[in-house]
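Let's practice the habit of predicting before peeking. Look at the sequence and jot down your guess about where helices and strands might fall. Then scroll down.
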Amino acid sequence: MKSALVLLATVASVSSHSTWQDLWVGSEDKGTTCARTVKDNNPIASLSSPDMFCGRGPVSSSGVCEVAGMFILLCYKSQRNSDKKTMLTAFAAGSPLTVEMHAQPGDRKCSQPAIGGNHYGPVLIYMAKVADAKTATSGSFFKVAEDGYTGTTASWGTEILNANCGKRAFTVPKSLASGDYLVRSEAIALHAGAGNPQPYVTCFQVKVTGGGSATPSGVSFPGGYKTSDALFQKAIYDSSFKYVSPGPAVYSG
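Done guessing? Here is the structure:
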């Protein structure tokens, strides 16, 4: 019986894995066109893994999608043995963006939790200014949004995400300098116990226009978190657990 329960728990855990996959610019649904699509919906195995940068084996970018008024210019270059295209979208500083997570690629039904299986944890969004969002492999990520845990019922970031059909909206700071950016969306599941965080990460390629002059400093991934960080030192079911925000404070500019 004990073995059966362990097996059922394992199956439930695997079926509850998820992936960030869609981006909204204001009310316009960009779908996956601006995403560095990850290879599967499994969590990142280690905080020191290169996958912490933009997720597990994301598809390399291959095009640019520029939006200006009612005119849309779409350019892309094909890749041998692949017709997948990852786009770059432009928008103004101060614009609202929404990132979207679901359990399975292409499945956006609100009837299913975005990330289930008691995968409680924070939801965090970072941005990094880069020379070219299509090819960048490093960046200084500053935090622009966070839903952590207040200690009340259904207040984990992942629970709030589920209540909103997998969507988390945020506003691009008006002070940011114009240019290419990576938007790094992340959920960190903490259900596996102390010292065992399970991050889910995807990057979206964007271009900011009409911005200011701010170029906030941030942290690198991997390197932004350590398993010795306070958030990962106690199990969330421990009576003495207290939420401590991982990484830098949210940039208020």
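How did you do? The chain has one domain: 2-232.
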